[in-house]
Amino acid sequence: MNPITINVPENLGLTRFEIEMTLAGKWYEEGKLTAGQAAEMVGLSKKAFIELLGKYGFSVFGYDFEEMETDLKNV
Fold it and tell me: What are the residue boundaries of the structural domains of the chain, listed by start?
């Protein structure tokens, strides 16, 4: 991973995890990251990452069903 610094206004009240999850979720949804890469980015298992996507407003269904099924079997 390539660490970067992002200046986020304190009044947003966002945690580091929330910011990382938002970025990872967006890049996953756009197909720029696999579920495994996105999960690694935020320090979660693929299963946990996929389970949290909805909480952050991202759809797992942009993901091919067979790929999702395979990913979940490999957890």
Answer: 16-73
